[in-house]
Amino acid sequence: MESIIQSLFTPIGNDGMVGIYLILNGLKVTLMVTLLATILGSLLGVATTLMKQSGKWYLSWPANFYVSVIRGTPVVVQLVILYFIVLASLDVDKITAAVIAFGLNSGAYISEIIRAGIDAVDKGQAEAARSLGLSHNQTMKLVILPQAIKNILPALGNEFIVLLKETAVIGFIGGVDLMRAGEIIRSRTFEDTVPLFTCALIYLMLTYIFTFMLSKFEKRLKQSD
Question: How far apart, in whole angstroms, are the C-alpha atoms of residue 141 and residue 130?
Fold first, then answer.
């Protein structure tokens, strides 16, 4: 136990930063990137779904292309390309680049989740709305999407948890997230077990907490139904 404590509190570098500070700071970065990327991904997912459902080829084709490219390439490749190539000339910081990359990735998957939710809504709902004089866009925004989103909230929660774990690759562009903090401690203290298992335990605890909250929320939705 003493060696575990010492490995976490061993000074890192010349400025006296310690392992526990790196872990906490990395955790903050991980949660911040996950939250902001989820918000961005949700907005992109809704917009992409509306474009695909518009029936206009100049809207549906770019949306389908975006979803196909994002779902067909690894998130770490997207992150590296975005930071080192696409945003290289804009001097964007690593955290912002990570938020954009994970937001773009999440948006494609959320779009498919929303599409599945829309397909699950009874087609009679859309027909009834159109018979009342609502346009296609009004029908989607006022009738179909509210019902679809309620049905897909559990899947959106799962996407948040998946995104939380995917952020462990931020270190590929030099960002100090939770996993990267563990790697820094490991390289400076020459202790492998404690830093890596500490990161794994934190990820496990976060996943368990969010899964528990999600299950409680699902139960409340069922009760309201």
Answer: 12
Give the chain's domains with CATH numbers.
Answer: 31-172 (1.10.3720.10)
For the entire predicted model, the pTM comes to: 0.84
For residue 45, what are its two tokens? 């997912």
Write the pLDDT tens digit of every residue in 81-116. Answer: 999 999 988 889 999 999 999 999 999 999 999 888
Helices (H), 121-166: 123-131, 136-139, 145-166
- Within the chain, residue ranges assigned H as helices are 2-9, 19-53, 57-71, 75-81, 94-120, 123-131, 136-139, 145-166, 178-189, 193-224
How far out from the chain centre does Cα 32 lie?
10
**What pLDDT, in 10s, does the model give residues 158-201?**
899 999 999 999 999 999 899 999 998 888 888 888 889 999 99
